[in-house]
UniProtKB/TrEMBL annotation:
Its membrane topology: Multi-pass membrane protein
Protein name in UniProt: Membrane-associating domain-containing protein
Residues covered by the MARVEL domain: 11-138
Keyword Repressor: no
Leader peptide range in chain numbering: none
Region span, Disordered: 157-177
InterPro entries assigned to the protein according to its UniProt record, in alphabetical order: Marvel
Length: 177
């Protein structure tokens, strides 16, 4: 079985770049729709639009954390850091695009640039959900592989404490007497 970190085809890098591009597009589209509501109508922007706006900002922060946290938290395997963020982002986009799609379905009319932007927002939200789900699956597979081997990825953590849950410098479960 191939490790995700050593693929000759940088699949995870391409998926992360796609997530960043989609987050930027959703941020732009959601901001456009929210601004239209806030400046043109007497009502505030819909919470569904605001939630997708939040999801895009959260994705950008998550991508920064996915890149930076493994550099500072070297004792924790990378899949254990990325998997929760991948799952959380996938859930945010699922909720966001589904809620905005239901909101648009309930409108009496939807036309013009703001409507097209909101529809594109739904589409990119659905695409983002798919991409974050794909990276969650890949991170989950890598986390299971790391857990099975007991290492941080390269086999460097193999030894008497591998698989015991003990950190270096601590006694393993088998050693505690």
């Amino acid at each position: 079985m191939m490790k995700l970190t050593n693929l000759s085809f940088p699949l995870i890098t391409i998926l992360r770049a796609t997530q960043g591009v989609f987050a930027a597009l959703i941020l732009i589209l959601s901001a456009f729709v929210a601004n239209w509501y806030n400046t043109t109508t007497p009502s505030p922007s819909p919470s569904q639009v605001n939630f997708l706006l939040f999801g895009a900002v959260w994705s950008m922060l998550s991508l920064a954390a996915i890149e930076l946290l493994p550099r500072f938290l070297t004792r924790i395997p990378k899949p254990y850091l990325t998997l929760p963020l991948d799952i959380l982002n996938a859930l945010f986009y699922l909720a966001g695009f589904a809620a905005l799609a239901a909101f648009l379905q309930g409108l009496l009319f939807c036309r013009g640039d703001v409507c097209h932007a909101a529809q594109a927002d739904v589409a990119f939200g659905a695409f983002s959900f798919a991409v974050w789900t794909a990276t969650a699956v890949l991170s989950g597979k890598e986390a299971l592989r790391v857990r099975r081997t007991g290492g941080i990825g390269s086999g460097a953590a193999q030894g008497p404490l591998a698989g015991t849950g003990a950190m270096p410098g601590q006694r393993g479960m088998k050693e505690a007497v």
